[in-house]
Amino acid sequence: MSEQYSLSACIVSYCDYDEVCAAVRSVLANTPGDLALYVVDNASPDGCGTRLAETDFADPRVQVITLPENVGFGRGHNTVLPFLKSRFHFILNPDILLQDDVLHALAGWLEDHPEAAMATPQLYYPDGRIQHLPRRKPTPWALFARQLAPRFPGSVFDKSDRHYTMQDEDLSLPRPIEFCTGSFMAVRTEVLQKVGGFDEDYFMYVEDADLTQKILQEGRVYLVPQYHAVHAWHRAPARDAGKFKMQLGSMIHYFKKWGIKKGSV
């Protein structure tokens, strides 16, 4: 069994009760020992929060918090910041499924690498395909090209996206990255609390890139590919005009805050 550390994790839910329950149960089943698992429901209109609050997960380590309004992804995760007494905290999407004790494995890796403040494992689609989520620091062109790349394979947009998502690099070993996906973040709790968690000016989208930049001021951020998890990855912005507009607003806020200078990895 992996060495035990004091761990906490948070899943912010918005609808889709069955998917959230699957994620919660996978975390509980694969994470022995000291764990505080928070499930924060963002006032799901389908009643997901009420059902979660009434669900007996048969494990005292899980706590459900139902919010009276939808406050967004980052602010939802920030809800638990004052409660955290763990050494390592995990930010997880509700479409994440664990298949082994990856939380303790990542905590142990961070413990062994004091220069690292945050890490993420390699994520896979449910059918086993790899997800190209580690990224370089965003630029306006990279984010624009990313929207068009799936429609124009082999184009300049596709080439730019492959570079942005580091597909032109060897990612078979741990390496620094500049954009850690909010789908699965492992972070030192004291660092997360020090930087104040997510910037709450973002309602949704790009807040994970913003948090990564804040964490990089405190230490390095790594992809640790020897550890894995399954991620359904619902890419709504490419299909939904309203959500794409929301993403565009988040991108504007990000570049006003951090500028457009390219990264170094």
UniProtKB/TrEMBL annotation:
Signal peptide: none
Entry keyword Glycosyltransferase: yes
Pfam family, one: Glycos_transf_2
Keywords: Glycosyltransferase, Transferase
Glycosyltransferase 2-like domain sequence ranges: 8-195
Pathway: Cell wall biogenesis; cell wall polysaccharide biosynthesis
UniProt record similarity statement: Belongs to the glycosyltransferase 2 family.
Protein name: Glycosyltransferase family 2 protein
Organism field: Gemmiger gallinarum
